[in-house]
Design brief:
The chain is built from 14 helices and 5 strands. The protein is mainly alpha-helical and 378 residues long. Helix 6 crosses helix 8, helix 7 packs antiparallel against helix 8 and helix 8 packs across helix 9.
């Protein structure tokens, strides 16, 4: 485990060093050295359901009309159907340009400067977070967490939007259809060789039922171990590329909103635990009105030194590793401050934030009501 930890840390520092070098040379996007390997693994994994289906058809055709080969072929075909890659569809309520013209006009200005494709939709969530997601067919969506949005200043909100849009301009592999399908397929391979996990609602506990014979357990252990190992390796490859993409997205956002705004937005996200604490303290009976999002944002914006210091100290102690998609925020702030010196290419003061926030307000209210319904106290 120590060797793996050292490898993770070494890769984390290497990614950061390479990003700083690339940005200093004017390169703000592009895959890393491990990208070809990541692509090759993803292609191989996505191809496996088709190979399994072909083998199932072969058994059926060559064994016909014998019952044994037909049954075996049918079982193999059933496994192929289970493994078959599914297109990821956008099923969440989504803002479009028709509903939010001011917001999408700003997003168009951002993507035009970044050289990326237009954003197709926006999700509003109750999380202190934001994200970029790609759905089939080639639908680019960004997610805005209402509490995070309310906790940011105007220029920081611009940086947030620019950061999420940048993920589509810098070819982040963690948000590509191919790698997404590969990760789902690997998970299905793992579950195919693992006994089912059941849930007992009476005791609220999970348990595993393994009624396989000895041969089945041996085969499951061998193939299950192999698929879990592949999953681990592929996940690390994705993390390496994704962390590189996160740095690039920060830098590209800093070019839009300014390095100060991007760094300030990142620092605000470090205080997310305070928003979580405010949410846990929420008491809602169904009769009283609770501005839960505003309270979460206020806890971050008005944090006292005594509240913020232990959280920031913990954040500053995080090490660079590749066991997660995002590098520690403190290193992202350092990269932004170190390699970006220019100001903003879009002036946040010229944006009609009043109109933009009015477009988002009904969706914030909807998410707030949904969240309060989950924590109602009788």
């Amino acid at each position: 485990m120590r060797a793996l930890t050292r490898l993770n840390e070494t890769l984390g520092h290497t990614i950061r060093k390479n990003v700083v070098r690339d940005v200093a040379q004017g390169r703000f996007q592009g895959a890393g050295r491990l990208s070809p390997l990541t692509l090759a693994v993803a292609l191989a994994v996505v191809a496996t359901p088709y190979l399994v289906a072909a083998y199932g058809l072969y058994l059926c055709l060559t064994g016909f009309p014998e019952i044994g080969p037909l049954v075996a072929g049918g079982l193999v075909l059933a496994a192929a159907i289970y493994l078959w890659p599914r297109a990821r569809r956008n099923r969440r309520p989504t803002l479009t340009q028709t509903e939010a013209p001011v917001l999408f006009s700003l997003l168009d200005a951002i993507t035009e400067r970044q050289g990326g494709a237009r954003i197709d939709g926006v999700h509003v969530t109750a999380d202190f977070n934001a994200y970029a997601a790609l759905y089939a067919p080639r639908t680019q969506v960004i997610g805005i967490g209402a509490p995070l949005w309310l906790a940011l200043d105007a220029d920081q909100r611009l940086a947030l939007l620019a950061h999420e849009c940048a993920h589509f301009a810098n070819n982040d592999p963690a948000r590509s259809e191919l790698t997404g399908q590969a990760m789902v397929t690997i998970d299905r391979w793992c579950s195919l060789f693992s006994p089912p996990e059941l849930y007992d609602h009476a005791t609220q506990t999970s348990y595993v039922v393994d009624d396989r014979g000895l041969t089945g357990q041996i085969v499951g252990a061998l193939f299950g171990g192999a698929t879990r190992s592949l999953s681990f390796v592929f996940e690390r490859l994705i993390f390496v590329e994704s962390q590189r993409a996160e740095y690039f997205a920060d830098v590209m956002a800093a070019k839009i909103a300014g390095s100060h705004a991007m760094a300030a937005a990142l620092k605000r996200t470090m205080l997310a635990p305070l928003a979580g604490t405010a949410l846990k303290r929420t008491r809602y009976t169904g009769a009283n009105e609770v501005p839960v999002f505003a309270n979460m944002a206020k806890a971050v914006r008005n944090a006292t030194p005594e509240e913020a210091e232990p959280i920031l100290r913990t954040a500053m102690e995080q090490l660079l590793t590749v066991d997660q998609t995002h590098p520690p925020t403190r290193f992202r702030v350092e990269v932004v401050n170190a390699v970006v010196t220019q100001g903003a290419s879009i002036d946040a003061s010229e944006i009609d934030w009043t109109a933009l926030n009015a477009e988002l307000a009904p969706f914030f209210v909807r998410e707030e009501k949904s969240l309060l319904a989950k924590i109602i106290i009788q």
